[in-house]
Amino acid sequence: MAKFHLITYGCQMNEYDSERVAGLLREESWELTSDQAEADLILVNTCAIREKAEDKVFSKLGELRLLKAQKPELVIGVMGCMAQLHQHAIQRRAPSVDLVFGSPAIARVAELVDRVRRERRPVLETGEGPLVKITTRPPAAGRLREFVTVMEGCEKHCTFCVVPQTRGRERSHPPDVIVDEVRRLAAEGCREVTLLGQTVNAYGRDLTPRTDLGELFARVGEIEDIARIRFTTSNPYNLTPKLIRAMRDVPKVCEYFHLPLQSGSNDVLARMNRGYTRERYLELVAEIRDAVPEMAFSTDLIVGFPGETEADFEQTLEMVETVGYDNVFVFRYSRRPGTPAATMPDQVADDVKARRNLRLLDAATRVGAERSGRLAGQTVEVLVDGRSKKNAGELSGRTRCNRVVNFDGQGSASVGDLTPVNIDQVLPHSLRGTLASQPEEAACLSK
Ligand code: SF4
Predict the structure, then answer these.
(1) How many angstroms separate the alpha carbon of residue 161 from the centre of ligand 1?
(2) In the chain, N or C terminus with fewer CB closer than 10 Å?
(3) Topology of the domain covering 3-125
(4) Per-domain residue ranges for the chain?
(5) Is the Cβ atom of 341 under 6 angstroms away from ligand 1?
């Protein structure tokens, strides 16, 4: 049986695409191997969000070239965002690559690989294709948490982002198809699904009849064995009162909301073309906390966007305090060729970005610790997903607000249980607790 090896860079969407590719190839009798040296096919799933990510890919392709020199029949493929954006640069800089294909062509991966092997010539497939829901995955029976793509693409055109160029326009999968997929996952042991889209809260507006993420929450919430629903990534611009009500009214929707802010300065937000102001963002946070007081927020922030002044940066710092994020992902702005921001004047020096990055991380760590400190003494619902990394005698799981909890299961809780745990200790990256009662008694706590 021919073997394939997958190398994945980038975001959850890429991880998910790699899983789909692995599932599709297995259906065509390919066997997955973790050893690239024994593979007949190596696929590199790429990310173009930052220059560093692209450099890593080219350096990996350089390494694979040596492997191919020893094994000329090896097929090397590049997929993902770089494939979509830089197909010609890949062919020029990495001539040992045989296959370049974008996300719309994922459904045809086996056919494309066959073509390369049959015709012994490079194949390039980066045009827009029909929207295909690929539900196949490599066998990993009983996985508790799964991602389910509900839509592809984005039409926001933030001035720093390549996604609209790499993933195309917004296209939603029909709710029935998504519900069927989640039902199948539940039958295989899944208890938590994360509904995935680049702008997931714009879900359904391109469908006929039109629908939305709130209605999808309700449908997925009816699937008995699914205990928790998460969703990512949202854009504040698309956040509606109806969706906020759905977060409140569908009990399985977890109290954890990733709501990218990107900058706390209105000038910077306008240059980013984000479509909201800091005031509007704060209004939304207040409305959400009004509806769901326990809501934990996480966010993405960019430091050093072109023209960002010290005063702009201070406003971002201030937002971290004001919102009180549980978790913050900080990125230093990096120019993406072909995006409007790449040619904006007043690019910020690297040392300034580095300094702002550190200050922001310090503030975010402090605020995150204050937020998790509030959990001390509380009883939280934990979805047990395995053993503690540091002590195999203990169980580990996550709260609804997405924090890791380690605790002694006392032989009465096991993987897959939803169980109440009293939080005794708040550590920098996790919580420690004590089993509160028997798992069977666990109510669907909303904390
Ligand atoms: S909403 Fe997100 S994916 Fe879409 S352009 Fe903006 S940053 Fe990129």
Answers:
(1) 6
(2) N
(3) Rossmann fold (3.40.50)
(4) 3-125, 145-373, 379-441
(5) no
